[in-house]
Amino acid sequence: MTKQLNCLLIDDEPPALRLLSNFVQRMSFLKITAQLHNPIEALEMIEKGGIDVLFLDIQMPNLTGIQLAKIVKQKVQIIFMTAYPQFALESYDVNAIDYLLKPFEFERFYEAVLKLKVSPENFSDNSKGDVDYLFVKTGGKNNFERISHNDICYVEASRNYIIIYLKDRRIVTHSTLKLMESYLPNDQFIKVHKSYIVSLTHIERTDSQTIFINGKELPIGNTHRISFFDRINQRKL
To answer: What order of strands is seen across the sheet that includes strand 203-206?
Structure first.
């Protein structure tokens, strides 16, 4: 069973801490060890060990997030959260994984946590494969739908949007194909064209120019043809 990353959440504003907690709980590879308002208390907990990731506000009394990060930066991975963009440069001086500018939505949080480093003994080489779903924004500010990787047949880029084709319907969301590719496990999905990512699981047949999938015909781009057929040949009889 995959070990989760132990997370410490630190923010002196209760509403911000509640929202962060909600986001973290949606990620199967993250586990909340504690939620704290006091950075001094957090320092004591980190020094005891067992914390992998620190979600850290910057503007706090007694000890700022930057000061705390400078003390513990060799012990944990740090994702900063703040309403003040002027602290961005300082956050990278302490090798922060990412910098979330408040107020941030789940999509931006999700992008940040995918950058977390994981150790081989805890996760497979492809850590995305340990999470078999993703959340897709489908409407208003906090409207998300959970989509299983196994239900995705292919994804199409369309200007500033992507279209996710499931077996019986499609979902349109504001995003990029590059970002979507980073969320999907590369042992199951492959980019076959500048505008398409396909699920190897759902391919019905193929010829030298075309992929037939879920009743549709998708082109194979010239720059992706070799890598695509290399993957096909790995699974042929």
So the answer is: 203-206, 210-213, 216-219
